[in-house]
């Protein structure tokens, strides 16, 4: 059986960087999915603009995005690895998927994904604790990527 690993943590704690390292080490087929977490009181969730998946796919070209059609195939593949990233400001209050909240659980069920491993930045020793940031407010900046570009090298993933 393949492995499904869910990692959670606050925005900016380097979940995607950890995912890249894990995906690069994995030799078999792999997939990556980013899910929005539960809306915490007074804390804004970052929007998934697709840039993390684009960057990861640039670094790991064989990377897939799991959909209902291929999620089960990846799970059945003995060498398959599916990484799911979830934004959570605080460690899950309960063990297992119950601690992830109703929105995340319903998205996982819709994709028929059942994580074998759940890790949270700042709680689990498999993830680097020193990179975990404390957030009380997420400040986000959005801009169009059309028009004049000041730093073309920063857009290398596109």
Would you kindly provide a written description of the structure presented here, covering whatever features stand out?
The termini are far apart. This protein has one domain. The mean pLDDT is 76. The protein has a four-stranded parallel sheet with strand order 2-3-1-4, sandwiched between helices. The longest helix is centred in the first third of the chain and has 11 residues. It has four helices and four strands; from the N terminus they run E-H-E-H-H-E-H-E.
Low-confidence stretches: none
Strands of the largest sheet, in order across it?
Answer: 2-3-1-4
End-to-end span in angstroms? 34 Å
Largest sheet: 4 strands, parallel
Measured by DSSP, the beta-strand proportion falls in 15-25%
Rg result? 16 Å
Number of strands: 4
Mean pLDDT: 76
Total of domains: 1
The sequence of SSEs as H and E is EHEHHEHE
What general form does the structure show? globular
As a percent range, the share of helical residues equals 10-25%
Query: Structural class given helices, strands, pairing?
Result: alpha/beta
Helical region count?
4
Helix and strand topology:
Blueprint: E1 3-9, H1 15-25, E2 30-35, H2 51-59, H3 68-76, E3 81-87, H4 102-110, E4 117-120
Parallel strand pairs: 1-3, 1-4, 2-3
